[in-house]
Amino acid sequence: MFSTEFLDIPPLTEAAGTVRLPGSKSISNRVLLLAALASGTTTVHDLLDSDDTRVMLTALAQLGCRIEQADGTLRITGLGGRLSTPQATLFMGNAGTAMRPLTAALSLLGGDFELSGVPRMHERPIGDLVDALTQLGCHIDYLGNPGYPPLRIHPVSLQSLQLDAPIRVRGDVSSQFLTALLMALPLASRRDITIDVVGELISKPYIEITLNLLARFGIGIRREGWQRFTIPAGSQYRSPGEIHVEADASSASYFIALGAIATSDGLRIEGVGAASIQGDIRFVEAAEKMGARVESGPNWLVVTRGAWPLKAITLDCNHIPDAAMTLAVMALYADGPTTLTNIASWRVKETDRIDAMANELGKLGAKVESGPDFIRVFPLAADGWRAASIRTYDDHRVAMCFSLAAFNPASVPVRILDPHCVAKTFPDYFETLFSVVKPLSVPAICIDGPTASGKGTLAVEVAHALGYHYLDSGALYRVTGLAMRRAGLEPTPANEARISALARTLPLRFDAGKAMLAGEDVTDAIRSEAAGMDASRVSALPSVRAALTTLQVGFRQLPGLVADGRDMGTVIFPDAPLKVFLTASAAHRAERRYKQLISKGISTTLDSLRSDLEARDLRDSSRSVAPLKPAEDARRLDNSSLSIEQSVEQVLNWWQEVQPFRPA
Fold it and tell me: Which sites bind 3-phosphoshikimate (predicted)?
C-alpha cells in the first residue's frame, strides 16, 4: 500500500494477466454486524481487510464480541441480541457501512453510546435514519449539527418502543438508512414490524444484498415491491456457521474498464462473476454498451477491448451508484459525450462525488457539465490531454478510477494525490494495477557517487518519499559473492559460467535499505571484509558483470526506481530523467565513516580512512570498465555541509522540475 504524499503513474499502454479482487466492503461489514448480533459463532472467509472493516471490527470488540483471526479466516462469537458492554465511545472513521447500521442496532440494544468519525463523516447526513428511529421511541441526540454525526444514543427498553404504525424512512438519500433499519429491527420483533419507504428507493441492489444476507442469518423479510418491507414477529438471528464473502464487484469495475480501454489479449478478473449478489456486477452491462467484450463464469470475468473508441452512452445509474464513477473516466475515451443520470446519491458519499469528478476531469482537459443528479463528460482528443495532479478528497473511488487516465493517447502521466485513501476498500489497488499493465517507460532516478558519499542513505529516503523501488547496486556484487560461497564455488574463471547463472537469477529485493535474499535479511552478512573481497573478485569476471547488468535493469519496475551506485547514470540507466552525482570532500566522508565505525566498536583513525577513500576514488575513476564519473547530464550535489533531510529535499525538488505536473 502506498502511503506517500502522491503517486505518479507513467503512461500505460497494455494490460494482461489475472487480477484477484479483495472481498466486498458492502458484504463484509454487513456480515460482521449480523454475526455480532446473532447467537453462536460465525466463521467468515475472504473478509475484506480495509480501513472500513477495521473500524467495524474495533467497534464490535468494544461492544464485547469475541473475535479470533487465524489462517485467513475470522471467527466472531455473537452477542445473541444482548449487550455485554452497555456503554462505549465508538469512532467510525469515514465508514458509512459501519456508522449507519451500528446507529440503528445500538439504538435498540439498550446502551449508552457515542458515535463519531472523521470530519467528512460529520458532513454526511444521517437525519432521515435518526427520524425513523425516533418514530419508534429511540432516544438519540445530535452532538454537533442537527441531522449529522456525531451522535449520542441513550438506552431505551424494547417494551417501550412503538411498533404499531409503519416506520417511514426516505429512500432517495441513501439506501444505507433502509439497510440499517432492516438489520436492526429483528432485535425488537415481538410483533410484525413494517417499514414504508418514502419516495423512490435509490441503490436498490444494495438492499438486495442486505435481504440476501439477512436470510443467511435466519431473517426472512417480506417485501411489497420496493416501498414496503415487513420483519416477521419473532425473528431471531442465528449464525449460519460459515459464510464466504464475495469479491467486491465495485472494485471489479476498474479492471473491467481497464480491459475495455487497454490493448490486450484479455484481462481475467477472479472472485466475482455473473452470479454475484452485488448490484454493481451490472457494471458489466454498461461496459458492454460502451464496447467492451466480456466473458463471464460463476466466479470470473475476462474482458477485452471491443469497440474503439468506446461508444458514448446515456445511462440511468441508480442501480450501480458506486461503479458508475468509473464510467465517467471511460467517457474520456468515447466517441461522443456520455451522460450519467440519477446519481444524486454521489453528493452524500465520502465526498460530493459529482463536484469532485467534474473538477478532476476538468484538470485532465475535459469539458464537463453537471447538475443535482447528473454528470455529462465530453471525450478528449489526443492533443487535448493534460498531465494532472488528481485531488482525491479522501475518497478511495476517486483515486482508483482516475488511475485509468494513464492510458491516454497523449502519453502524459497522472499524479494521484494521497493514494493511501484506497485503504478504505482496496489497500493493494495500485500494486494490483501495476501487476497487469505495461508502461510506456518506467521513471528512474540515478544517484551515483564515490564511497561514503551517503548515496545509499539518500537513495533510500528518496525512494520512500516517492513510493519507488530501490536498488543498491553495490550490494549486488556482495550478494553474488555470498550466493557463490553458499553454492560451494570459488570466484575463478573455471566457475564463471555457474556464478553468472547464479547472478542472473538472484531472488533479491531491497526493503527499507535492507538486502533480502529469498526472503532472508543478508544486510549484515554482506558487510564483512570477506564479503567485500568476494565482491571484488566476482566483479572481475566479465560474464558476471553482464549478468548483473541485466539483473539491475530488471529492478526498473512500476511505479519507478531510485538506484544508487557508481555507474547507474552512465551505464545502467543512461535514459533516466534525473541523474544526481553526489559527492563530498574526502575529509567529510572520512569523518562520517569514522563515526559509523566507532559506533559499531570498530577501531580506526581518521587519517587512515581518508587515505583509503582517496586511493579508492583514484581506482574507481581510472578503471577501464564503467569508471566512476558523472553522467554528462547529471546534477552535482555536494552534501559536505548538508543534512540528509536537506539532500532529500534538493533531489525531490529536482525531480519535480523534470515532471510535467502543475502545482496542485
Answer: 25-26, 30, 174-176, 203, 322, 349
Please name every residue paired with 438 in a beta bridge, in sequence order, or none if there are none: 14
Question: Which spans in 343-472 are helix H?
Answer: 353-363, 396-402, 429-436, 455-466
Contact call for residues 446 and 569 (beta carbons, < 8 A): yes
pLDDT at 664 over 60: no
Q: How far is CA 305 from the centre of its chain?
A: 25
Q: Which three cell numbers stand for residue 22?
A: 479483495
Model pLDDT, residue 122: 97
451 known ligand binder: yes
Whose cell is 572520512? That residue is 590
Residue 502, classed as helix, strand or coil, is helix
Catalytic residue (choose from 248, 280, 322, 564): 322
Judge contact between 548 and 480, C-beta under 8 A.
Answer: yes
* pLDDT bucket at 533, cuts 50 / 70 / 90: confident
Instruction: Please report, for the chain, how many H helices and E strands are present, in that order.
Output: 20, 33
Whether residue 459 is annotated as binding a ligand: the answer is: no
User: Does 191 carry a binding-site annotation?
Assistant: no
Give the contacts of 663 (CB within 8 A, at least 6 positions apart): 389
Q: Is 124 annotated as a binding residue?
A: yes
Torsion of CA 285, 287, 291, 295, to 10 degrees: -70
Whether 177 contacts 202, CB under 8 Å: no
Share of the chain above pLDDT 90, in %: 81
The response to whether 251 counts as a known ligand-binding position is no
CA distance 153 to 126: 13
pLDDT given for residue 265 in this prediction: 84
**322 catalytic per annotation:** yes
Amino acid identity, position 59: A
Overall average pLDDT of the 323-327 stretch: 97
